Amino acid sequence: MQRHIAFVCAPLYRRAVQLQKKGEHPHAVFRSSRCKVGVQRQVRFTVPGLRATAVMPTPTQAPVRVQVPRRELGEKAFGFTLVRSEFVPEIQSYVRVYKHDRYGTELISVVNDDENKTFGVAFRTPPSDSTGVPHILEHSVLCGSRKYPVKEPFVELLKTSMNTFLNAMTFPDKTCYPVASTNLRDFYNLVDVYLDAVFFPRLTPDTLAQEGHHIELDAVDQPMSIKGVVYNEMKGAFSSPERVLMSASQRALFPDTTYGVESGGDPADIPQLTWEAFKSFYDRCYHPSNARIWFYGDDPEDMRLQKVAEFLDAFAESSDRPPSMDPKATAISVQKRFAEPRRVELPYATDESGKFYTTVNWMLHDTVVSLDADRMLSLVVLDHILLGSSAAPLRKALIDSGLGEDVLGGGLESDLLQMTYSVGMKGIAQEQDTERVADLIFETLRKLSSEKLDDNLVLASLNTIEFRLRENNTGSFPRGLALMLRAMTTWLHDADPVLMLRFEEPLKKLRERIASGEPVFQKLIQEEFLTNTHRVQVVLRPDPDYAKRTEEAEQARLAALKQSLPAAEIEKIIQETQRLRAKQAAPDAPEDLAKVPSLHVSDLDRKVKTVPRHAENRAEGVTILSHPLATNGIVYIDVGFDTTQVPSELLPLLGIYAESLFEVGTHREDFVALQRRIGRDTGGLRAAVLTTQQVDERGDGAVIQRLFLRGKATANQVASLFDILTDVLHEIKFDDRERIRQLVVEERAGLETRLVPSGHVMTASRLKAQYRRSDWVNEQLNGISYLRYLRALQKRVEQDWDQVKADLERLHQCVISRQGVIVNVTYPQIDEVMSHVDAFLEALPARALSAAADTNAAPALDGVSLRPMNEGLVIPARVNYVGKAANLFDAGFRVHGALLLAARYLSNTYLWEEVRVRGGAYGGFCRLDPRTGTFLFLSYRDPNVEKTVDIYDGACDFLRRIQLSRDEIDKSIIGIIGDMDAYELPDAKGFNSALRYLTGETDELRQKRRDEIFSARIEDFRRLADALAQVREHGSVVVLGASESIRRAESCLKLERVEPALPGTDV
Ligand SMILES: [Zn+2]
């Protein structure tokens, strides 16, 4: 339900770390169907009548292991008073609210048996302009503090902690600093650094210059330019039309409040931020009386209180600020309702083929303070009814209309004081169609509010939401953090923080109301949408000259400024530029770096984390894997079909084929009925295509290609889940041309939208494809090649449908068979589900259509020959993604755990410093894929091209020169082990274990790598240097970026080919 995180900063850095974290399978790339069906659990409904009873309600008793200190309400401890204490069964936790005696700071202590401990400190930070002051502060407080006087303690922690989450987030009205770790000592190290950062940062005008904005000038005859980390970040963010639209939609609804400005900062406004405004915003907002502190997990409660008390006491001693700031200074005012609907139109930067975007946005009636939990839940279910799946009537009406390429707008938004709703479309060809989209939205809503809603539609949504709430599967995101953000909805505005954590009562009431025949949702649609005049339609108009005009206007402004300045001032700017650069380049003093707390190598577990796995090999190559893990009553099932026999011309069609499995319907039911059945009777089903390769000495093992069908259900839903799978696999009907066309258009539009923001992923994919066949397949299925294929496929669906349909049918026959299938079950009582598995397998066709049986169709991989090549791919953006790669196996090296360590060190030091801090890119890093041996340098949102390649080429000299103390090597070891031991929920544990089984990555091999890491020495870093000399000499370069930048670099980088990433882009 949290969709509106404005900025999760340093995302690239996180992504790089997370990629390593998935480190177990860095090479397995998924293209996964969007999970339009959510998750649900153990709820049986009797139809009709809509009476529902939870078979497995949330237990109301705490597990014995969970204990809180005995303390009466009103009792004091560590300068806090306990003001509230209760057991919340929905989250199996004690929730206790403490209030600080001096500052009134509220601290919520959630005690349970989750080892993934979470801490967060949040401040109410409503901005009054779009200079991005909250966002710049979020970056700035992490740039050194009283106890940790180094340039970026945050980066030090990323390098050397075992964190499962470490980041900061700026929302429209708050700034959050959360951390998580499963290691107690590590957790408190992180808490200490974060508390010191927010209450005692070393803010100076230089911090604002570096993180916010400053003018750079190298010489008198050079042009001036604006630089700054957030300035660059927001320029990048605003090059995405969807991001522009999201911002504009919110701002248009709240012209009179803080939500009417851009908290992340508008690049046009950021340079107006002064040091005085910056400092006074900090003083006003970052005060203990405006802080909300959250702890969650299995650490002792008193430790929490003691740690925070330490900082608040120090604050009292050192700060001259009063014990309480005026709470009104950060209170968020209520937007007055519009008497009439409004309309806003804005230009956005696009290439020639630009299309229109539109959303219709409502401000709902309640504030999150006045709202009760029942109404909130009703709205959440209504949102799912309207938009939650491809069968949802509002989503379906929009898609069916063909007016645009995909549905847009996040639906219900409950992160702001006043809730909003947003829906629209992207990829609209004609301006007048933006009106037709709005008309269609109203027409559909009117229809829904006047008719009785289909029972199965309501049940599917109710079940899906309930399953989601109970399973609380947050993936790699810590559960404690998801709950903190949920509590923050009300807590931020001084309302009941526990309200949003409970759901049993509201669920029960909602079920009863529905059962009694009350038209709950029709009424809501009427009140919140149809008769609500507080709404705005926002239209984004494509403007091919917009980027150029903005750029020219900025340059003209700077040129005029330079003209107006006396020579002495100009000289001063040149000197300042040099001074700032020198300051950024100066290393931290070793004694200061040593102050940043870290674990010791001795705190780490030498043994690799293993997952229990039982493998049963049957006739016909069938494998059954099972993992007896505690899953809270949920059965997770993955069925993997071998796709290596797919002929080459059908290979790229696998994605759309997988996407269509649950989306086109069968001979028995159309896709709407199928989707509702999945929502009603299971916890969700999706298909994913996986490509990886077998572990092999030369990093060139057999390619593994699988189509995975992944589902979840409660034990007594397993039969229904397999029924649905069997129906789909036996009865699927590829007749519906329009439906397939919609899927292709959605897929294409989605990938095109991600092309620029995920340019580094595309660049990496393109480069890796030059070295290994498995990566080549991945590029065909996910990369630029795939995007080009989709464009052609869309035309084929329109012009040559019969052939496309025949291809889909042939693909289905090539893939679905019992031969070589793998079934992976994660659940403690495997026996309970085995009979269903057996029956399902029995019903599968014995053999697939083989490619060889087909005249002139060889398996896709037979004809592949790989060749490294320098390539420039032009995209309509003002930023570049620069990659360089080579395969170390091919250059005669062997992958060793210590090389992985050295590569990670290089990312965190040299590349971070040179590509990000000095080069002005948003990120720069490298990766060594242990399975293939491909080494890859990458930059993210980079203003440079050749300069970045020079930095890559300098990496081997950097590694040859470095002197590393044992302590520094140990810190790196801690960091990489932290990545490798990433926290996983049981479904992820079971699935990753199955992937390791497929690739032959044994626990012995993993242990060997781990041992190699622990025994790393400086010589290993030098060994990587030798390998990187090979990358420098023989590596290939791929640049995805702006036309101008690529043209400038073309001869210097010896680009063999320069072409638009997508046909139709101006080169
Ligand atoms: Zn940021």
UniProtKB/TrEMBL annotation:
GO terms for molecular function: metal ion binding; metalloendopeptidase activity. Gene3D superfamilies: Metalloenzyme, LuxS/M16 peptidase-like. Keywords: Hydrolase, Protease. Coiled coil: none annotated. Residues 540-793 form the Peptidase M16C associated domain. The keyword Protease applies. It comes from the Eukaryota. SMART domains: M16C_associated. This is Presequence protease. It comes from Cyanidioschyzon merolae (strain NIES-3377 / 10D) (Unicellular red alga).
